[in-house]
């Protein structure tokens, strides 16, 4: 799964720390999300979409085998 969290965060001129505070998660969680090493819960994905005023699909791009068959 590809993530555009970093790009959205930069577009909104936010630091990782600021985003982590808005989402009520640790900065390490934001780092892991940006690197695609952590798949968020639906609630966290929704919070991200609300923070960036977009849809979940605008942030997370599913590729290859990850799609439900």
TrEMBL record:
Keywords, alphabetical: DNA-binding
Source organism per UniProt: Virgibacillus dokdonensis
Alphabetized PROSITE patterns for the sequence: HTH_CROC1
Protein name: Transcriptional regulator
GO function terms (MF aspect): DNA binding
HTH cro/C1-type domain boundaries: 5-59
Pfam families: HTH_3
